[in-house]
Amino acid sequence: MKKHILFVTFRNEEMEEGLSYAIDLAKAMNEGVTVLLVHKRKLIQKFSDAMTAAAFAEAGEFETAREIAAESSIKDSRRELGLLMEKCQESGVSADVLEVDNDAVTAVNDFLRQKNGIDMVLLSPSITSNGNVTGRELQRLVRTTSRPIVTMSRHVYAV
What are the tens digits of pLDDT across the range 17-75? Predict the structure, then answer.
């Protein structure tokens, strides 16, 4: 079984940020990449969306309720995941893409309990910036994970 690098990122508009580095690192180490897409939405947001959809349904606006409940179409999700897989495969790196609906630290720990073919965990800039993962959570991840944790930061450009 070929070893993999676990690349963790949020499923949002910045989900490809850092992916090219993960691919290059995997190529250099002759490994594959497993992309773990973490949904950033919090439970309170999910509840709010469900209540909004219910209110539209009660008002007879069934189409609007369906759109809110679905949030984003499954077709768009599959297309985005396919583009990530394609980018990895074009670079000659085997890839897996998984989605989880959890916080980043719990998602990584849960994934590593299930899979033992991971050599390194690479946290994207979207995970480590803007307080998305606190210092305490990062310390907990380092303590509970038997693999190296690598964090990435965004480049700062002078204007």
Answer: 788 888 889 899 999 999 888 876 555 566 677 778 888 888 888 888 777 776 644 44
Q: What are phi and psi of 92, to 5 degrees?
A: 80, 25
Q: What is the CATH number of domain 4-42+73-151?
A: 3.40.50.620
Scanning 59-134, the segments in alpha helix (DSSP H) are: 62-70, 74-90, 104-114, 125-128
Burial class (CB in 10 A: 0-12, 13-18, 19+), 62: exposed
What is the pLDDT averaged over residues 126-135?
A: 76
Residue-level pLDDT at 73: 43
Neighbouring CB atoms inside 10 A of 59's CB total: 10
What single DSSP character describes residue 12?
Answer: S
Which residues are CB-contacts of 13 (< 8 A; sequence separation ≥ 6)? none
